[in-house]
Structure prediction request, 218 residues.
Amino acid sequence: MTTTVYFDLDGTLLEYTTPFDELLAGVLSEDPSPELAEFFSDRVLEGITEIEPDPYERAFEAACDRYGVSGDPPSLAADYVALEAASMTIDPAVRRLLESVADRHRTGILTNGDGPMQWRKIEEHGLDEIVDEVIVSNDLGARKPDPAIFEEAKVRLPADAYLYVGDTYEHDIVPAREQGFETVYVGDEERPEASVTASGTNALASLLLPLLETDDDR
Prediction:
C-alpha cells in the first residue's frame, strides 16, 4: 500500500524565532510604533486571507500612505520577505524526520500563505530539495480549511492512503480528516479527540518516525 505524507510549513516544519515588530523594524529606517505594526500586520493578513496578489507590497503601500513610512513599497516588501524567511529555523530532528519520510514515501508541503513568501521560506531552508510537491494556498486559489486544497494534494501525489501533519486543529486536522487523511496534530491545544498528537518538533520527530518506517513506497 502506498502512502503520501504532507506537512504544514509554519509552526510544523519551520518555527518563528523573531517577533513580528522586530522583523518590521529590520526593514524600516526607524522602529515602528505599535499602531503601525498592528496596521501592517492586519493588512498583510487581510491580503493573504483574501488571496490578493502582493499582500506585503500592498501593506507597505498602505503604511506609506497612512503613516508616512519612507521607502519604496516593492523594495520594502522584498526585504521583509527575505528577512522573515531567513529568521525562521527548522529543528535538526525535524529535518531528519522529513528526510526519512521522503526516503520512504511520496512527500509534500501543503501550506496557507502568500506564494512568494512561502516559496522563499522553503527554498531558504532547502526543503524543496527534500519533498516531491509543494502546494501554497494563494498560488492555488484555495486556502485551508477549503476541501479543494486537500483534494488537489491527492491529485498531485496519488496514493492508497494519505497523512497530514499540522499544528492548527481547525484548519489543518479537521478538514484533512474530512477529506480522508490520517492526521498528526502538533499544536499546543489539548485535543484528546485527535488520533495522534505531539507537543513540539522533537516530540513530532520521535513520535512520527516509528509510524512511517513500517513500509516503503519508493
About this structure: The chain has a mean pLDDT of 91. The first strand starts at residue 3 and ends at 7. Strands lie at 3-7, 106-111, 133-136, 161-166, 182-185. The radius of gyration is 18 Å.
